[in-house]
Design goal:
Layout lengths: L2 E8 L6 E8 L3 H10 L4 E3 L13 E4 L6 E5 L4 E5 L4 H8 L4 E3 L10 H7 L6 H4 L6 E7 L5 E5 L4 H7 L8 E11 L4 E9 L2 H10 L5 E6 L11 E8 L7 H4 L11 E2 L11 H13 L5 E7 H5 L5 E2 L10 E9 L3 H15 L6 E6 L14 E9 L4 H14 L3 E2 L26 H8 L2
């Protein structure tokens, strides 16, 4: 039976918040009937995107569609409903010796959301986006049809939906490929870099690694700008593991998780606390080059161990700003961006630098292209709009663009790259905002 209620909803950044009619269904027929009566609607998974993506006055909550359909271990494929979380997928597949080929920095996104955003991970230069590993999905379109979409069937709709932000219809189910693993550990290396020159040299030297990413101290200035730690890793083979880890190679001990029970006061996050955090983070490993083994969850999802960490930014919320600029302009563009952020004092605990590989031209709505991408959080305050406008100007100057999944207020010309997604029925507030100001 369909459930309808009015809620105040928001995405992970707690900005913006809106009142919306939230619809939840058990059956596709119920969804079809409700969609037919709505003028505008958008699907909403676990709300782990940012900004005004997946927000609309009427939304379809997909989390009740959380059934597994098939797990074929022989060929490493899994099929499930779109509301299944990646965390539920990995809980099932890791003990069986599999992992998700492409995963973002949180496991709490739905499979439908992973397709709608065409998520990327620390291995984009090797494995591309999530779309590269999707075999097919089923889609409920605005006229009530259910279409199976793959590279051979409804191909146009298949590619338009990859990164299409839910604007082509309602994803119902999906089947995708998995990666075979021998252990649930990563052979990890953490290398300190004093500045931007060092970290870019490390990225060049690490392209043969499957996973690489860097954490940056965004408030450093002068010769220290770009101070960072490179994290690179490979799936550990069983014969590489220390003896103490081999016994439970595919079943590591569960980590203790923490919960942030309340919103922090607005003064808690300021340049002083950020500088203290950054100093502690940079020096925690005790030496310049650390080699060790870490479990998959610690390597890929370190923040997921802190439930409701978004409350650290206070009740006004925050935005996550992520852009990509072409590789050959990477160092120059990043320097200008980091200088601007440091001068503003509006810093972030979480600053992540990655190198994207070449994009698949068929996945034309995916965000990544070959270049450097930076993601960081900004607390919402009176100065944020001006800062974002300045950063947008730099991104545009260097030929970059903004990740729609995290966009809240950027210049529409940096987020208007989607194609073939026009639907009078499926529309988000974000899409309306972008199109209204072009």
């Amino acid at each position: 039976m369909a459930i309808k209620k009015t809620e105040n909803i928001t995405n992970w950044g707690n900005y913006p918040a809106i009142d919306a009619e939230v619809l939840a269904f058990q059956s596709v027929n119920e969804a079809r009937e409700e969609i037919s009566r709505c003028s505008k609607i958008i699907a909403r998974g676990n709300g782990r995107c940012y900004g005004d993506a997946s927000l609309q006055k009427t939304v379809i909550a997909t989390k009740r569609w959380n059934k597994f359909i098939a797990f074929e271990r022989q060929n490493g494929e899994i099929e499930c409903e779109s509301g299944v979380l990646l965390s539920e997928v990995i809980e099932l597949i890791i003990p069986a010796g599999f992992f998700i080929v492409v995963t973002p920095g949180t496991k709490f996104v739905t499979v439908g959301g992973a397709i709608a955003s065409d998520i990327h991970g620390k291995n984009h230069h090797v494995d591309g986006c999530f779309s590269e590993h999707v075999i097919f999905f089923t889609l409920l379109t605005e006229n009530g049809e259910i279409k199976k979409c793959s590279r051979d069937e409804n191909e146009d709709l298949f590619w338009a939906t990859m990164g299409g932000m839910g604007l082509t219809g309602l994803i119902l189910t999906a089947r995708f490929k998995l990666k075979k693993i021998e252990t649930a550990y990563i052979r990890n290396e953490a290398i300190q870099a004093k500045n931007l020159d060092e970290i870019f040299t490390l990225f060049d030297a690490s392209e043969s690694w499957t996973y690489n990413v860097a954490w940056l101290d965004c408030l450093q200035k002068g010769k220290n700008i770009g101070k960072s730690i490179m994290l690179r890793g490979e799936h550990a083979r069983l014969d590489e593991l220390p003896k103490k880890l081999k016994k439970h190679a595919l079943n590591p001990k569960k980590k203790i998780s923490f919960d942030i029970p309340f919103y922090f006061p607005s003064f808690a996050l300021n340049p002083v606390t950020i500088k203290i955090f950054n100093w502690l983070f940079y020096h925690k490993q005790g030496k310049k080059h650390l080699k060790n083994f870490v479990d998959l969850e610690s390597f890929f999802y370190p923040l997921d161990a802190i439930h409701n960490w978004n409350k650290i930014y206070g009740k006004k919320g925050f935005i996550q700003y992520q852009f990509v600029i072409p590789k050959h302009k990477g160092k120059e563009g990043m320097r200008q961006i980091l200088e601007t952020i440091a001068a503003s004092g509006n810093g972030s605990f979480l600053v992540v630098l990655k190198l994207f590989g070449r994009n698949n031209p068929l996945a034309y709505n995916a965000f990544p292209f070959e270049g450097y991408t930076l993601a960081l959080d900004f607390k919402v305050n009176n100065k944020l709009t001006a800062l974002v406008a300045t950063l947008d100007g730099i991104v545009e100057k260097y030929g970059g663009r903004i990740y729609r999944t995290k966009d809240a207020m950027s210049k529409p010309s940096l987020t208007s790259y989607l194609k073939n997604i026009d639907s009078p029925k499926f529309n988000s507030l974000q899409n309306e905002r972008i199109n209204s100001t072009l």
